[in-house]
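Feature request, filed as a ticket because there's no other form

It would be nice if the structure record came with a short human-readable summary line next to the tokens. Right now we just get the raw output. Example of a typical job, pasted below so the devs can see what we mean:
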Amino acid sequence: MSSAAKVGAFMLVILAILGYFVLKIENLDMFGPKLREIQVVFDNVAGLNERSEVRVAGVPKGEVTKIALQPDGKAKVTLEIHDDVPLFEGATARVANLGLLGEKYVELDPGDPRARPVTGPNIVLRGSQPASIDDVTTQVSDIAKDVKAITASLRTVMAGPTGEQRLQDIVENVRLITAQVRELIAVNRVNVDATMANMRAITEDLRVEIPKIAASLDRAANSIGGTVGENREDVRRIVENLRGLSSDLRVTADNLNTITGNVRSGEGTVGKLFTSNEAHDKLVAALGSVEKGVTELSGTLGRVGKMTLDLGVKADYYAGMSNETAGIENIGGKSRSAVTLRLVPDPEKNRFYHVELADDPRGSREDRLTVETETDEFGNETTTTVRRTRFEREFLISAQAGWVLDDLALRVGLFDSSGGVGADYRFNDRIRVTGEAFDFGGKRDDNPHVRLFGEYTVRKEKPHTPRLFVTSGVDNALNDTAFIIGGGLRWRDDDLKYLLGSIPLPK
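Raw output as currently delivered:
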């Protein structure tokens, strides 16, 4: 077996071990369950993207594979769910948020298990969506308008001479009521005394003129006298309670006079609210600040929910690269490994950011000229110029900004720690071709560094399963040409996405 074949076999083993550890750490399943497709029609799917999760009772059971606009203006969403999820008549779906700051996902309600099961290849469900932050903002704005109207009405009713006269009328009516109650008590006491006197006169007349009737009336009078005697204490208590009630009403009237006086003079919180324009202006300003804060929060949540972040690791073997140029004796290999990060702030716009940290086998080249002078035994001097070249392994950084034009993506920025440009062409969901050119100033090579390679997706990313891909192509075609053989993993990281969501990005 040749040396290149041994190194290639060793790199494949290392790549397999790396993939195994990544799957274990991320708790990923390479062989997921059997899937099936269903369609859901929504009026609005704002914030929902392809590859968003599908959950049943909060448990992840699939993802969104396609979002399309129908001729009637509604959105048709294709879901890929696990085959073990049963569907019954009346099944529905809705767009929900994963917590306050969480991303959008589809919550699937399978329906009543007692209903008839729904089967077949063309299942279409009706979807719904919850109230958005914009709806909440509109309601808060309406509440603020109502509060403004109430304060204006109170100021109109209570402020000025008209409001003061109304308060005085209320106090006067309370005073008249207490006086009438006092007079009513006094009138009733006189009537009771008069009634008792009349009864005595009648009994005396009946005793003289009709003895039998007088005797009967006397017994009746005694009975009435006993009854009045028994209830006299109750009558006294009633009178005392009415007297206490009149005193309490008088104190209440005095308190009302004091309160209205304070309000009229602008003292206390209520007085300042009724008479001070400053308090009204502060209340309006506070409501305006609340409305502005809700608007800014709505915009922030919308941007974070739309953001997508992909992480990846890959390893390549450079076959055919010369040992002398690569500095194998000092560096020790022809492999290149890299960690990549791709950030898309808003999928509806055509820009993205790409960052990569790589360990390059070519290393860093340093040329040094040394002048050496030798003197022979006869005193003759000989001057020799020696050029020494040294290679050291180093980490290279790539940081690029990109724009998407249909199936073509253009990138510009740092490529392996030097300026350059690149382009990616996407044939379909599995095949992509990439071309990069950089190091135009001859920093590391005499000619610009050109890299051409293709990428093939072996397995698409699924819930709990990363994207698995292989690569092949040509590196440094204008200098030390090497053939690329490698592969790697790529997956979406939502936790890191929300950490980066606090970083301000251009709109």
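Something like this underneath would help us a lot:
Confidence is low (pLDDT under 50) at residues 325-332.
The radius of gyration is 46 Å.
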